[in-house]
Design a protein that fits this description.
There is one protein chain. The chain is an alpha/beta fold. It has ten helices and 16 strands. The protein has an eight-stranded mixed sheet, with helices on both faces. The longest helix has 21 residues. GO terms for molecular function: metal ion binding; N-acetyldiaminopimelate deacetylase activity. Pfam families: M20_dimer, Peptidase_M20. This is Amidohydrolase. Keywords: Hydrolase, Manganese, Metal-binding.
């Protein structure tokens, strides 16, 4: 498994362009006797393994895509593709699921069907949604679906999970303010969009402090503000952008509605025009309580009681496995990647964090994650 993982790491592919990775996955699954369908959701791969007579089925998912960033590591399995890097551990996720497929194909003790979902474009492009729109759950029906993500900072090989929301939704916004340009020494002759944008930046935070229920978690971050080209000219246009994260659609609805009202009223009051573009990308990742309880039992069987945190604090990061959990009950969990001491000599000088140029997946997790998937499938599809 380590050799496969490092081969994938050395050949990262971004978005839906995971052709080499998808073919590697498909050929391995076929080699081990699974039925394979390529091209699901553009470049996704589904492997199917059936035992016995039961009509029950479970779905296990891994993501295959890398990030569009330059790797700073210099060890032997570093990226060979400039501007692409497995900086989030999808190489490890794919390999763990391959390991589970191999074991279940050779030695699996279950009655029913296991579908292995290998997904493209998790980082950008909503590959899970693309597979669903391509008939994933009609063509490969399952009762529940499960996935894992490595998590730096959690002790190596430990699991962390919780029922309910575990990762946030992600939305992006762009607010454009149009005024009338003029000389900076004569601001009374124009309408200043920069001034209006500055007021809006402050007022947007009132949504979180004065409109949202304090017990509902949310984040609203303005991350860009642009306007003007010369220091003595008031520009005609200024714009600002950022991201919103929530754990519920209701809170997101509130934030978008109040944002539009604040922007419109503020711009109008300062003699400017406004436009709000609000894009909802990934919904919150919400674990089904019953499937999470099953997953926790399996985790404890694999790593022991002390190795499982069943009430982890949710994160404001987002994950497109959320689309699958909207369609089917299931559970998404974290598996600890450790603190970075596992990295080979020659790693970059940065920390071993997700989306960091010095990151590398911890190969010690491979048998642990694979065992979790195996025992989860066998428990879910237990004979009798």
């Amino acid at each position: 498994m380590s050799a496969i993982r490092r081969d994938i790491h050395a050949h990262p592919e971004v978005g839906y362009n995971v052709h080499r990775t998808a073919e590697l996955v498909a050929s391995k699954l076929e080699e081990w006797g699974l039925s394979v369908v390529r091209g699901v959701g553009k470049t996704g791969v589904v492997g199917t393994l059936k035992r016995g007579d039961s009509s029950r089925a479970i779905g296990l998912r891994a993501d295959m895509d890398a990030l569009p960033m330059q790797e700073s590591n210099e060890f032997e399995h570093r990226s060979t593709h400039a501007g692409a890097m497995h900086a989030c551990g999808h190489d490890g996720h794919t390999t763990m699921l391959l390991g589970a497929a191999r074991y279940l194909a050779k030695s699996g003790d279950f009655d029913g069907t296991v579908h292995f979902f290998f997904q493209p474009a998790e980082e950008e492009g909503a590959g899970a949604q693309a597979m669903i729109e391509d008939g994933l759950f009609e063509r490969f029906p399952v009762e529940a679906v499960f996935g894992v993500h490595n998590w730096p900072g959690i002790p190596e090989g430990h699991f962390a999970v919780k029922p309910g929301p575990i990762m946030a939704s992600t939305s992006l916004f762009k607010i454009t303010i149009t005024g009338a340009g003029c000389h900076g020494a004569m601001p009374h002759l124009g309408q200043d969009p920069v001034f209006a944008a500055a007021q809006i930046v402050s007022l947007l935070q009132s949504i979180l402090t004065r409109n949202k229920n304090p017990v509902d978690s949310a984040a609203l971050s303005v991350t860009q503000i642009h306007g003007g080209e010369a220091q003595n000219v008031v520009p005609t246009v200024a714009w600002l952008g950022g991201t919103v994260r929530t754990f519920s659609d209701e809170t997101l609805d509130l934030i978008e509605s109040r944002m539009r009202a604040i922007v419109s009223a503020t711009a109008f009051g300062l003699d400017c025009k406004s436009e709000v573009e609000f894009s909802r990308n990934y919904p919150p990742t919400i674990n089904d309580p019953d499937q999470t309880a099953l997953a926790v039992d399996v985790m404890r069987e694999v790593v022991g009681e002390e190795g499982v945190n069943a009430s982890v604090q949710p994160t404001m990061a987002a994950e497109d496995f959320s689309f699958m959990l909207r369609a089917k009950p299931g559970c998404y969990a974290f598996i600890g990647n450790g603190g970075g001491d596992h990295r080979d000599a020659g790693h970059g000088g940065g920390p071993c964090l997700l989306h960091n140029a010095s990151y590398d997946f911890n190969d010690e997790l491979l048998p642990i994650g694979s065992t979790y998937f195996v025992r989860l499938a066998e428990r879910f599809l237990k004979r009798g």
